[in-house]
Write a structure and sequence with these properties.
Length: 330
Amino acid sequence: PQALATSSQRHTVTRILLAGFSPAQVHELEQLVPEVEFLTTTGNDVLEMVAKADALVGLQREAVNRLFNAEALQAGARLRWVHVPGAGIEEYLMIPGFVQTPWTLTSGKIIQGPEVADHALALLLVLTRNLHLVLTARGDGTSPRPIELRGKTTLIIGLGGVGLLIAERAKAVGMKMLGINRGNLPLLHILEHVYQPEQLLDVLPQADVVFMAAPLTLQSERMLGEREFAAMKPSAYLINVSRGRTIDTEALVRAMEAGRLAGVGLDVTDPEPLPREHPLWTFKNVVITPHIAGLSDHFWERGFELVKVNIQRFVRGLPLINVVDKSAGY
């Protein structure tokens, strides 16, 4: 780290390598911070561009992934900041040595909250109102009566930028709100009680609906498995909008075969994409969408605004927004 700091002090021009930006966005950044030299890459000069850069900033995941690899990042002796656009960063943390780097990592966490929370509630409403049966003509006239959400107890696992907005929406339809979260939170009136992760098995039996909104870490991988499904009410609904690997898929299949859950809504799966022959597709009370919860008409706008703010703060030596704790994984 000391050698990197010394190297970064030898030049006065701040260079930022951009990935996934349109020409109009690059021009806007050049007008906003003219003291910065913005770099782009054709793909053939990746290592050369990374070696020149003080920061690597991505606006589209696919573009970042073309740069974010062990070989390219080993060339980044001057890098001090890396920004990735998505909320989930587990694949980047798997790059050997990345967690130990002195670089600040920022992500798109929090800013994806509105659309993911909307999608989570939509999955729940599809299941509780039997819309999946009506719209696909899979109903046989004997479908169960729709479920009213008012008065039901919701357990939200992970109270971050997505989980808290799920709580906001679920509270608006009259649900009682419980949460699982590592660490302490402000005493929000929409949350009746917040439990620690080790209390999960104790609180699951209370829940009519369980939302999985935790980031994927070593602690949350397969957090919901055989024991957890056995602890849930047979009338409970499970919604996952975080990462597929937070749930033990094989255990979920067994739980559905045994009739342990009333319905499941998944925007993420393990594996992903889910093969068409996978047994989860065969259950009438399972609704699966192809990892689209993070999409909306305003996400790119919010992502670009975050980048603009952070570039200005980076140039001025101010703390960045949306910093990821690389060791914790979120």
